Amino acid sequence: MTGVLKAVLLPFQLWNDVVLKIGRGIAVVAIALMVLAILIQVFFRYVLNNALPWPDEAARFCMLWLTGVIAPTAFRRRGFVAIDMLIEALPRRAGALLSLLLLFVSAAVLAIAVEIGWGEVTGFGGQFDTASLWVPASLDFSEWMRVPRSWMMASLLVGVVLLFIVNIELILRALITILGGADDLRPMPLGEEEIMAE
Amino acid sequence: MLIWFLPLFLFFLIIGLPVFFGLLAAPGILLWMAGQERDITLLYRNVYNGMDSFPLMAIPFFMLAGELMNKGGITIRLVEFSQALMGHLRGGLAHVNVLSSILFAGLSGSAVADTSALGSMLIPAMEKQGYTRRFAAAITAASSVIGPIIPPSGIMIIYAYVMGESVAALFLAGIVPGVLVGIGLMVMVRLLADRYDLPKAERIVQKEQTISGAEFWSSFLLLRLNLAGVLLMIANGFGASETVPGWMVFAVMLALAHGLLIWMRRQVSHDFRIVCKRAVVPLQTPILILGGILIGIFTPTEAAAVAVAYAILVAFFILRTMTLADLPGVLQRAALTSAVVLLLVGAAMAFKTVVSLSYAPQILAEFILSLSENPLTLLFLINILLFIVGMFLDAGPAIIILGPILGPIFVDLGVHPVHFAIIMSVNLTVGLATPPMGLVLFVASSVSGEKVETISKAILPFLAIEVFVIFLITYVPAISMTIPRLTGFVN
After folding, report:
1. pLDDT tens column, B121-171
2. What's the rounded Cα separation, in Å, for the pair B170 and B162?
3. Whose CA is closest to B173, among B195, B151, B157?
4. Cβ contacts (< 8 Å) between B30 and chain A: which residues?
5. What is the pTM (predicted TM-score) of this model?
6. Do the strands A129-136 and A144-148 form a parallel or antiparallel pair, or are they unpaired?
7. What are the pLDDT digits (tens) for A74-127?
8. Cα separation, B374 vs A122, whole angstroms
9. Main-chain dihedrals φ then ψ at residue B371, nearest 5 degrees
10. Do the chains contact at A63 and B15, CB–CB below 8 Å?
11. Is the pLDDT of residue B67 over 70?
12. Residue B340 and residue A81: Cβ atoms within 8 Å?
């Protein structure tokens, strides 16, 4: 049984290894662009006395995407705040069962979020354009189009989809642990990063 | 029906569901059971709209600035500076630990970063001087809670956003309480120093230090400009600019500041001067942030972005302690931490909508008022509640959950919203160092190699003084409200 589960786990593990690494790369670029946008805003407003319309929205665009693409890494590294006192106090098997149950709850939340998110991005709200963001619509930069709001809204959808895939990996790992195959599992890739929001 | 979301949420929380999912699952399930599936879409929308905010951007920026400063080698400069000022006292390094935390708090809003950065440097140094490891770890953990109280502070930004308060007002209101916690801890160190005969330390550890040209001239200029700025404000108070052009007054003040500093340099040793000079550049950060906000040049978010730019300038060009290869790692750490907080804040905004729809604050208010009608008694009780919550939950999530429920009740009772924000923030921040689930206790344990249980016992005298300060802040509103009132950020 654990052999089958391990075979199913492999593609999810590989997906999360590769895609979340790309996500971390995008997040690094996004946070750098956010800083740049706001500094441009400060410079133009206070030095040149000319308030630009786009930096605020561009920085928010980057922040939303940053959250969407890197939050799954935090979830995978158990960086989401939780009180795990009960799980640790319970006998090992009971604790693992409780963890599995909790992962099913989070999977349900994420599955519903994916469904709603898709509806939001493709629905009425996503049909509008952003207020001040433009991108070139042709290769020679002769035509420009407004960035659709759906591009911004897609950040949370992508986030919950990636979180859902991480959740499936965590469920499979929890199942393998319960069935006694924990020793064969690859240790979860923990970066040297600590989540230190407080 | 909807009122049951709160017990359900607490149930989820206790059995270990991450707060983010609990905030959405509890109201979601009840809405679904009540046949209000459409409102579940509203929850999703509120998460998105909650994150799509300009003021919230200050969180990733301040985290990034803190990370850059920390990686850029400012910790050693702050510790050396603190030691030059307080090392000669009995219990010197313990005092240095507290003062470093106060200074570090002006650059970073994170208690965890404070514990790991200062702990890894000061705990071994304290052990070498004869302090027990548990005492060194305990004072490091206890003093690190000053980090999120003194601005900049991630917790204050979250509170301000979720509760619709001014970030600037909360930042300013946190200064005196943060310093007060520091002074309280120093008093306790002094008492313990007498009892356990804690040693004094050398004021200057590394003699004959050198300073680079860029750092020398940066601190030379910054010191004079800051001092001239202060003198200018005093002169303007006497109406100097009304009679003479402003630039002329400033030029005179600059010359005066230069003369004053030249006189002061003769009073101290060469080594002391170098240590102080090396601290000027990092310590300019809080002046830049608070000065910019106070003068009205920056919003807190812009001040945070400027702090990042300044940190890059310092780390790459002035101190030259970072290279481009270090940058992606620092950016990634800041992004990772921010994403967790931003998602939580988004979920909190969704949760807040359900809180107001459920009439939970009204029902809870009736219950609380049935206990007593005296606001002073209720504030006492609420502090006890917050302290207990802080023992189990980190400050950020606790503020997100309890702020929308408790805030309106106490504001109705006549407590100023900014005052209540400070009571709540300080109490829950102290909770970061309380057993059994104090986040900084775990960090202090991993930095020192001492068991959490042992540190938990050693920290008790320091926690006692912090609890005393919490009650002082609660019953003397002027402690937190004076600076925001004087600066016009609170009416």
Report:
1. 999 999 999 999 999 999 999 999 999 999 999 999 999 999 999 999 999
2. 13
3. B151
4. none
5. 0.90
6. antiparallel
7. 999 988 888 888 888 999 888 889 999 999 999 999 999 999 999 999 988 778
8. 53
9. -75, -45
10. no
11. yes
12. yes
Residue-wise over B317-350: b if at least 16 C-beta within 10 A, else e? ebbeebeeeebeebbbbbbbbbbbbbbbbbbbbb
Torsions phi, psi of A145, nearest 5? -130, 155
Closest among B14, B42, B40 to B25, alpha carbons compared: B40
Give how far A140 is from chain B: nearest CA, Å. Answer: 32
* Tokens coding B359: 């009439």
B457-481 pLDDT, tens per residue? 999 999 999 999 999 999 999 999 9
Q: How confident is the model over B269-310, as pLDDT tens digits?
A: 999 999 999 999 999 999 999 998 888 888 999 999 999 999
B130: exposed, middle or buried (C-beta count within 10 Å: 0-12, 13-18, 19+)?
A: exposed
Question: CB of B180 within 8 A of CB of B102?
Answer: no
- Angle between the N-to-C axes of helices B167-196 and B270-295, in degrees from 0 to 180, rounded to the nearest 10: 150
Helix (H, G, I), strand (E, B) or coil at A131: strand
Partner-chain contact B18 A106, CB within 8 Å: yes
Is residue B440 exposed (0-12), middle (13-18) or buried (19+ Cβ within 10 Å)? Answer: buried
Q: Is A129 strand, coil or helix?
A: strand
Contact B487, B167 (CB under 8 A): no
Q: Which 3 state secondary structure label does DSSP give A144?
A: strand
Tell me if residue A145 falls in helix, strand or coil. Answer: strand
What stretch of H or E contains A65?
Answer: helix A54-76
Q: What's the one-letter identity of residue A1?
A: M
pLDDT for residue B185 is more than 90? yes
CB A165 within 8 A of CB A13: no
Looking at CA atoms only, how far is residue B198 from chain A in angstroms? 31
ipTM: 0.93
DSSP-derived letter for residue B207 is T
Distance, in Å, from the CA atom of A182 to the CA atom of B351, rounded to the nearest integer, reads: 36
**pLDDT at residue B188, rounded to an integer:** 96
For every residue of B216-277, DSSP letters joined together read HHHHHHHHHHHHHHHHHHHHHHTTHHHHS-HHHHHHHHHHHHHHHHHHHHTTS-HHHHHHHH
CB contact under 8 A, B436 and A60: no
Q: In a 3-state reduction of DSSP, which class is residue A87?
A: helix
**Position A18, amino acid:** V
CA distance B105 to chain A (A): 12
Residue type, A157: L
CA-nearest of B140, B133, B130 to B198 is B130
Angle subtended by helix axes B58-71 and B111-128, to nearest 10:
20
A17 close to B (CB below 8 A): no
Alpha-carbon distance of B441 to B445, in angstroms, equals 6
Q: How far is CA B440 from CA A17, B127, B231, B437, in A?
A: 30, 19, 40, 9
- Measured from the Cβ of residue B247, the count of other Cβ atoms closer than 10 Å reads 9
Please state, in angstroms and rounded to a whole number, the distance separating the CA atoms of residues A90 and A107: 23
Residue A189: the pLDDT is 61
> pLDDT tens-digit profile of B4-44?
888 899 899 999 999 999 999 999 998 888 888 888 999 99
